[in-house]
Amino acid sequence: MSATTSTSGPAGLDEPAAQTQPFWVLSWLHLKYQFLETVRVPIAVLGNLLFPSLAMVFFVVPQESVAGNPLYATIAIAGLGLFAICSASLFTYGLGVAEDRQLPFYPFLRSLPAGPGPQMVARVLNGGIFSLFGLLPLILIGWLFTAATLTFGQLLAGIGTILAVSVPFVLLGMAIGYKLSAKAALPVVQVILFPLAFAGGLFLPPEAFPAWLDAISKATPTRAGRDLLVQATTGLDAYALALPVLAGWTVLFAVLAILAYRSDEGRRFR
Amino acid sequence: MSAVEVSGVTRRFGAVVALDDVSLDVGHGELVGLLGPNGAGKSTLLSLVSGQRRPDTGVVRLNGHDPRDARSRTVLGLTPQETGLPATLRVREVVDFVGGHYPDPVPTGELLEQFGLSDLGKRQTGSLSGGQKRRLAVALSLVGRPRVVLLDEPTTGLDVSGRGALWDAIREYHASGGTVLLTSHYLEEVQALAERVVVIDHGTVLADDSLETILGRVGARRVQFTDAEGTRQEHLVADSDAFVRDLVRAGTEFRDLEIRGASLEEAFGQLVDATNEGAVR
Question: Partner of B30 at 20 to 30 A CA spacing, among A80, A197, B99, B152?
Fold first, then answer.
């Protein structure tokens, strides 16, 4: 490449390229408009609000042995809350990004003077905001209809933890969304989400797992996230490797997301 | 340093060669029309210049820099495809959003005023008519006070007055020193705006010359009339005046004479055939 440019002469004498707008300015800009776009499709917001609450009402509240026990109820809410967020992140990003890429506005966005960073940061934050909306009714139902108890400090710690835990899932979603078409993204997300949720102990408590499954479970990002969340909300200590496991997956998914973005050149033509 | 420099660029999509060793150099302040039928490679070329795609071989430079680097695109403006505006955002919001990417954007109110969109600022883009979307699309290409503007089919589907207004805006931008690279498959659009025309088909540059020269080459006319037997005849001729004069002189009986410019596709058919014959035979 450089050999070719040198023949064009003035290439080496160019004035330096101008700078783009600062990273945080662009991130804020993208966040603002992604939020507006999402919030103006009420069903998307409602879906996020309803799903975890319905699961709570049907599967946790009627079971007296769980709903009546403060510790079990809190853990059940934590598991469902995390499942809601994993599912929202994978679907919103995996499917959402894949669909966005098929819109004609997308290539236009990519040609604006901004790198991939601000758009990705905004997507992660926007996902976090709507995940919080989804948690509110869940917390409310838990408070009104189960014996779950949280101090205010535990509530804040829980919300902070769940947002941090959502990051690797948002990144995984983006990796899928930038790599695959919308039609392919949907089954892939489903195939990834349910085994991860089950193995991570979001549906059944991992205490009931046989030893081999427990070992696998502890290597999954869902289990690591769940135990950290349980620790934040109940004080039960997470296993020692939970944080490194989650951090490792986060780095891996971030790399995958960036590679997928770079290899993406709009719609595929074959 | 050129505004846009494309040298020896080839781009394939699977087995399809969209661009085949294309070179093009656009100087600052030029207004170049890129003409070609659908699928000729025009949009692929623009997507390379705007950094959306990378060439398989060859070099693309925007203002002397690689357009895949976001910093080099601070001097670039382009139109989104009309159908691609985010439907739930309001007109003013889309302008603010796009403008926010540039160091010194045109104030939103001023831009909307210039494009006659002031009354629509609070409307969601999904509710705009086709013409209004087109105007917004061209307005978006200019919001960042770019030095180079890429316009992909800027007035497709517009009525005459809408088209005239957009042409004025493009001329005004060009008069202020801006560089324009515009694609169209409408001969009249390129005729109305461009000084230089690049004709492209099947991924290769067929002609790159001044407007007058190109018009001479693709200026075919289609003449139709009904003859004495009642059969509708159709002729594609280079000089319709001479053709009609001959027709009258020969005393041929005809009615419902109709003459119109050949569509660009037809004209290209001739140009392409001529080129192929020259090359093959």
Answer: B99
